[in-house]
Amino acid sequence: MGSIRDSDRAAKLHAATPVFSLLLAATLWGVFWFPLRWLEQYGLTGLWQTFFIYTGTLWVVIIILWRQGMNFFQELGMAPWPLLFMALTSGVCNTTFILAMLEGEVMRVLLLFYLSPLWATLIGWLFLKEELHALSIGVLIVAIGGAVVMLWHPGMGYPWPAGKGDWLALVAGINFAILNSLVRFTDRVSIPVKTSVAWFGAILVSGGLILFTGIGLPEVSFQVAGYAWMIGALMMVIMTFSVVYGVTHMPVHRSAVILLFELVAGAVSSQWLTQEVILPKEWIGGTLIVIAAWLSARRQLQNPDKDLIV
User: Fold this and answer.
1) What residue segments make up the domains of the chain, in order of their start?
2) Long-range CB contacts for residues 60-67, cutoff 8 Å, separation at least 24
3) Residues 226-243: tens digit of each pLDDT
């Protein structure tokens, strides 16, 4: 009897671990804005934050490279152009997401970013030749409705981004949708290699923008730069692999719903720690966007895909 109970406990723990892993990732992503704004208060601007944070992930890339050896480069050679495009797309996505969190309101940025199912559906239809089923059309209609409500500008009489934060959040969401389409396209390449490519892309894009814009390193202490590096080395790595573990050990349509907890974490933390107010139209538009994300998760039940890069 004792061994049966022990095996039952082990089975329950095994089943619960992916759920806890995804909840941890969603919570950390939902409060990710806080260390970003904290670093900004100490003078470290958005592009430099992105550069230092993703440089902090390189210790994992080095371990992956050391363990895989020449196989790492052989996998890169399987799809060099798609992987290069993946690096650039990931770089734009992560850089604009961090800049949006610094420029805009937390919940508004998160909700506009979560319009990615809309872009994913359109990309799948236009470029991947995926059929538009009834559920896909439902995702489009509900997501577009949420976007219209969120972005409605009374003075103009039509939906339009309210400021730089909105634009950055939309760009981040579009690139996130493209990124995950590329993840599906490069299915022969392993998750560790694609994750390394995605992280390196953030370093490449943020570093390139720093050089292009001529933004010098702010006068911050070595300690502040070290904090940014540690956020990447610990928090970013934990968030990424928590998602990868959870998605790998759970049907994607379920994991996608659990990851919506990011919005709850973002709402609670922003209401508690900032003076930002969520307007009624943002509640309504946000609800529609969440419903679209849920419908998108249900759609994934018809076309499961275990790869996810964050």
Assistant:
1) 26-300
2) 60/196, 60/199, 60/237, 61/196, 61/199, 61/200, 64/192, 64/193, 64/195, 64/196, 65/196
3) 999 999 999 999 999 998
Query: Residue 297 carries which side chain, given as an amino acid letter?
Result: A
State how far the alpha carbon of 193 is from the alpha carbons of 31, 60, 103, 187, 252, in Å. Answer: 27, 11, 32, 11, 20
Sign (positive or negative) of CA dihedral 198, 307, 72, 74:
negative
Cα–Cα distances in angstroms (integers) from residue 295 to residues 252, 265, 288, in the given order: 13, 21, 10
User: Range with the lowest mean pLDDT among 100-109, 158-167, 220-229, 234-243?
Assistant: 158-167
C-alpha distances in Å from residue 142, one per residue of 33, 118, 148, 261, 293: 27, 9, 10, 20, 9
**Six token digits for residue 153:** 């500008």
**Residue 159 dihedral angles phi and psi, to the nearest 5°:** -70, 135
Backbone angles phi and psi of 216, in degrees to 5? -75, 160
- Computed from CA positions of residues 88, 92, 93, 98, in that sequence, does the dihedral angle turn out positive or negative? positive
Q: Which pLDDT value is given to residue 206?
A: 97
